[in-house]
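Q: What would this chain look like folded?
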Amino acid sequence: MERRTFVKLLSSTPLAPALASGAEAAEIPRYRTVTSHRPAVVPGMPGPYPGTVISVKSARSLSPDGLKVDGEVVREMMERGMRSLTGANRTVDAWKQFFNRDDVVGIKVNAGGRPWVVSTPEIVVECVRNLMAIGIRPEQIYIFERFEDQMDEINYAQYLPPAAAGVNIFSAERANQRYSNANYDPSVYVEADFFGEDDTRSNMITLISRKLTKIINIPNMKDHGATGVTGCLKNIAYGGFSNVARTHYRGTSHTLSFVGTLAAVEPIRSRTVLQIMDGLRGVWHAGPFASTLKYVFFPRTIMFGTDPVAIDRLLIDIIDEERKRQGAISIWDRNEKTLDFMNGKKRDDDPNVNIIIREPGHVEFAAKLGLGVADITKISLREIEL
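A: My prediction, written as structure tokens:
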């Protein structure tokens, strides 16, 4: 079953960088971006399909309790989604629109919501399988994230088939070297002073800046105490740079502008060519973590596109609607009575209390940087139910 809910598309021409005005402009930190990488003729974000999102849903993708994944159903969802996005008749041809056999491909997973809401191994395996099907060798594929301890808990290697034994599992920060800059590029960074911190630079992961030629971004559907939602934009931005948690402190968040600013840095912007939003499970509160099932819900959906802004704009409504069903305040709530869990206080567990004032406006801000379409009336959503 397919139906189109929105049919208008915005031009792929980047929007003018008139990012903010008035009081908002006064609150935006001064950024200095340093990179020698030039943008591609058609940058990966928003890519060849600006404003287009394919959403594939299947009740059969998870067991009735949501705890087990059906790998065969996930494969069918992935095939339908990729063919629908590209218009290709064959799945292999859909993947060939983005990758060739000479590419070195990074698969940016999200491991922060372990164990329940991470980039589902079955989705990651399907990406690997399809990359190999078009001639990319396992040694040219990297499954990567920032923190080794998080990746070790998931252990993606155990899910890979024998033919994919050479796939690289990469973490920028080793478990015994947390916050080390060893795997970050000193020549590609964004500098900003948020709260008078000692280290004002966020450096790009060297794997991204010096080795990968293409990136697949696999975020989850998650609430976030500082950004409102953590989806495509935050997964590739905060997951691709060092020293990013410093943006939210003592109830104040600078994520409104920083998420998009990082995502727009070359070569991340040009090399991130495919967005696959893992919505089999989601987190409606206390994200980006999911150590228990208390705030987990089950959309049983995978979304496909090249435009991270369009997908994240839809994600805002998905998370906010689930919070409404649960009787929680909106992610847009600006109640200034916040609790600062980052200053030594215990994280509050009340869905109706803001830990930090959330900044879901970071999605619209990213649109102003030319990263995609945020206007809901100009997003083309095709929903497929299996």
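The longest helix spans residues 308-325.
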